[in-house]
Amino acid sequence: MTPLAHLFALPVRAYRLLFSPWVGFNCRYQPTCSAYALEALEKHGAIRGAWLTARRIGRCHPLGGDGYDPVPGCDPDHDRAKQDPTAGPR
Hints:
Layout: H1 3-23, E1 29-30, H2 33-59, E2 67-68, H3 76-83
Parallel strand pairs: 1-2
């Protein structure tokens, strides 16, 4: 992880340590938004990882989706299925 990505991960780690136990564990997506943020920052760096995290948090609302939503590039089968819905798992 780049130094800037480490810096961007600090608020996420603080949230997981301080607020997440109080808020509860009722995330709509798997992995949770905080786990998604840390994985996106590690895989894609600070700028793109922050952008992916912001998009993910923006989708987290009562009218949004739910279910399995991995970081792009971390699950090749899922990425392939999103690009071509007719392609099943190999």
